[in-house]
Amino acid sequence: xxxxxxxxxxxxxxxxxxxxxxxxxxxxxxxxxxxxxxxxxxxxxxxxxxxxxxxxxxxxxxxxxxxxxxxxxxxxxxxxxxxxxxxxxxxxxxxxxxxxxxxxxxxxxxxxxxxxxxxxxxxxxxxxxxxxxxxxxxxxxxxxxxxxxxxxxxxxxxxxxxxxxxxxxxxxxxxxxxxxxxxxxxxxxxxxxxxxxxxxxxx
Length: 203
Prior knowledge:
- This protein has about 200 residues and is an alpha/beta fold.
- The chain has helices spanning about 45-50, 70-80, 95-105, 110-120, 135-150, 165-180; strands at about 5-15, 15-30, 30-35, 60-65, 70, 80-85, 155, 185-190, 200.
- The protein has a single domain (about 5-200), classed as Rossmann fold (3-Layer(aba) Sandwich), CATH 3.40.50.
- The protein contains six helices and nine strands; from the N terminus they run βββαββαβαααβαββ.
- A hairpin with a 2-residue loop joins β1 and β2.
- α4 runs antiparallel to α5 (about 135-150).
- The longest helix is centred in the last third of the chain and has 16 residues, at about 165-180.
- The chain is globular, with a radius of gyration of 17 Å.
- The model has no long low-confidence stretch (mean pLDDT about 95).
């Protein structure tokens, strides 16, 4: 399990443009960090770099577990969830099929998937194709993966954007529970998260 993430002197580039450089950040169990900055500053790119999807121009991202340093590949494969602007859902599947597939992919137990369905109030949506779901319903389906397949590090890109006030409060409860259980959250935001956070600004 990931217990800490250390980002040192990170620099990221998109095409010919340097997004930022010399960015430092440490997260430990129970930490929630809100990434802020103007549009295009590199918040999404930072999340993708932590997830291993973007190679840094300079600097490093290191992971620690209870007994010391973790191999980055193992930590990323087994210890984190990345939820971006695009939820990564297959539009031709039903909500039930998609959640079952995602659960199998991440090693979730069947009872954990059932609990996620209840928690995110998805029962009435299970037989509807993903393409027919609203943006908020799709986000709830994506969030169900977090519930069904616990991973220590949540990387979230504007997680609240399509949710109504009730679902934001519900997700806030899930985030608080995740942090209390020793999880870590790094989120790119414009709206404040419904849990206590510290801010890391990307200039």
